Amino acid sequence: MSESEPGPSPDSAAFPQATARTAGSLAVLDPALTDCRACPRLVAWREEVAAARRAAFAEQEYWGRPVPGFGPADARLLVVGLAPAAHGGNRTGRMFTGDRAGDTLFAALHELGLASSAVATGPGDGLTLYGVRVTSPVHCAPPANRPTPTERDTCRPWLARELELVRPTLRAVVLLGAFGWSATLPVLAAAGYELPRPRPVFGHGARVVLHDSRGRPLDVLGCFHVSRRNTYTGRLTPAMLTRVLADAAKAAGLDVPGDS
């Protein structure tokens, strides 16, 4: 595609790939992502939710668009979830912000000194992440929190390019849930990291060290997702989450309490 030729329209399945690969920085990638309309089912759902709104947020204007990653461009640790929540990121416009899952995640990051606050309400709240970026394989809120394989694959170029852009500083990745694990490993393989065979299986506390073509290591850790179901049932406790994040932060070379 030459500079004189227009790119695919935002509602084309080719839009993510064509647009992501030309982004030279996260400052370009993130706003470009918010224009995407490549998955009709997700577009319809995110906009329906934004129009109907939850009663508790009836007076708020919902974002109702794809949600980009959040955190510094030179992050050493990447946390990858599933997709924005319908009344969380889809409402606030910021990843993991405005729902119980985000409350749990940011509280743990704050405890480790990796976030300026344990509370995340929306852009403008002053929240800053230190050395950590949070993102997801699917950037639109899906019905029942279940993206289809086609939607996952259509959205993949955004995550692939995000990984490429943070790669110079990236040292560790935490993958939340089986979906985050299975959706991200192929992206890492495509980025040049060699996956062992058989492919690593997801589990809470699972850990594998990958190497790129230059032999540079990347620690990949699995963690149960910070979903309301997991935290309410005790399948994932705050201590369990903090332990995985602390291990990942240490692997990434970030200072955390108790690290000496």
From TrEMBL:
GO BP: any one term: base-excision repair
Protein origin, superkingdom: Bacteria
Keyword Aminoacyl-tRNA synthetase set for record: no
One Pfam family here: UDG
A single MF term (Gene Ontology): metal ion binding
Domain named Uracil-DNA glycosylase-like: residues: 68-245
The entry's keywords: 4Fe-4S, DNA damage, DNA repair, Hydrolase, Iron, Iron-sulfur, Metal-binding
InterPro entries on file: UDG_Type-4/5 (IPR051536), UdgB-like (IPR044147), Uracil-DNA_glycosylase-like (IPR005122), Uracil-DNA_glycosylase-like_sf (IPR036895)
Keyword DNA damage: yes
PANTHER family: TYPE-5 URACIL-DNA GLYCOSYLASE
Similarity comment: family membership: Belongs to the uracil-DNA glycosylase (UDG) superfamily. Type 5 (UDGb) family.
Protein name: Type-5 uracil-DNA glycosylase
Source organism per UniProt: Streptomyces triticagri
